[in-house]
Amino acid sequence: MMRTRPLKVALLGCGVVGSEVARIMTTHAADLAARIGAPVELAGVAVRRPGKVRAGIAPELVTTDATALVKRGDIDVVVEVIGGVEPARTLITTAFEHGASVVSANKALLAEDGAALHAVAERHGQDLYYEAAVAGAIPLVRPLRESLAGDKVNRVLGIVNGTTNFILDKMDTSGAGYSEALDEATALGYAEADPTADVEGFDAAAKAAILAGIAFHTRVRLDDVYREGMTEVTSADFASAKRMGCTIKLLAICERAADGGSVTARVHPAMIPLSHPLASVRGAYNAVFVEAEAAGQLMFYGPGAGGSPTASAVLGDLVAVCRNRVEGSTGPGESAYTQLPVSPMGDVVTRYHISLDVADKPGVLAQVATVFAEHGVSIDTVRQQSRQDGGGEASLVVVTHRAPDAALSGTVEALRKLDTVRGVASIMRVEGE
Ligand SMILES: NC(=O)C1=CN([C@@H]2O[C@H](COP(=O)(O)OP(=O)(O)OC[C@H]3O[C@@H](n4cnc5c(N)ncnc54)[C@H](OP(=O)(O)O)[C@@H]3O)[C@@H](O)[C@H]2O)C=CC1
Ligand SMILES: N[C@@H](CC=O)C(=O)O
After folding, report:
1. N or C: lower Cβ tally within 10 Å for the chain?
2. What ipTM does the predicted assembly reach?
3. What is the DSSP secondary-structure string of 125-159?
């Protein structure tokens, strides 16, 4: 039976995502009410610039006082789509204290302070849902938290940042420049308010921390995630990748150690074979592989950024939280977490593609090979090409077998000290084989 008192929603932020949340709440009001068992009403919208024209939003709902809005006492659910750590953290905490549940898309905050926020929510008997924080429209948080709660997830591997995938895809397929592609991604609403978060890998690292935490039932914070951005990827790297039958993607990889006693989480650009399903993930799409003991391999795929796809995930959470409210319950809280240690990047074992500028003279190849051998890094293939500019230099590309990252770092450090090695042009991990 439909209850008549509407559930009141406070929307914090009305930008790329928030404006779409408001639009869908209005246009799909009847459907949402039917699914929830009660009407939902937009009770207030907090923004920074009150004078901005916002289509479909009654001006009297708009306020710059987000704190007063979450403290009103009649708000059932706060939807936080402001972004950033503060004031979002304080506003969410205040919302719980004043009897509201929260839906958030804020991965930066959840990766930094998710555990503390969950504790406050539970203390006040409220829900905290955040499906939109990872991989846009793709249902991933709930499948990991709920559907796979009885299985043992060992690995999560994927493309979780739409902006960087859009840029890398453009660089690969149309030869577009980095800045031009970033401007386009920003105009399309994919990039963060500060796109450094995307291109330097902070956004993907925050998502990796969230994914590793829920997949392995442990606490992983942003600082635990090894991170490299994609700003140094060049057209020469793409050309090298092509020669190997690969492309380049910014990957998030979370793994449970074989003995189950620790986990790793990392974000970096990597070469992956063109035959791998992640290689054909185009534009701002995301895709995530989950490997679980009983389920085997699962793949989640879909739009990873943009107002409308992200709003879909927010609305899904809003319906779930409102249903809980109508039933007088809360959703599943945090499962009992163990604290598994997070191993350093040096322990990660993978393959590497190293591109060196070397002197083109006898014995250089042997010297380089000796350095690899001394560090216990086994070479798979070597390709040398003399430069045609008469400078007596050659380009040497070494692809290794699997080796610990620490051994590779030691190798590169030693290579840099060789007189015959003029420079290390690039180091790229090779994944997904
Ligand atoms: N864009 C995307 O594709 C995705 C975004 N997200 C996440 O969703 C959240 C929102 O992103 P997005 O919509 O792109 O961001 P925008 O920058 O487009 O929107 C931010 C909104 O928050 C408002 N705002 C900022 N600071 C305050 C404040 N102190 N008080 C009140 N309002 C404030 C802004 O007001 P005003 O309009 O006046 O400037 C704006 O309406 C972020 O956490 C982001 O990481 C998650 C998945 C995908
Ligand atoms: N900036 C993010 C938005 C979604 O999380 C991205 O590009 O993926």
Report:
1. N
2. 0.99
3. T--EE-GGGSSTTS--HHIIIIITTTS-EEEEEEE
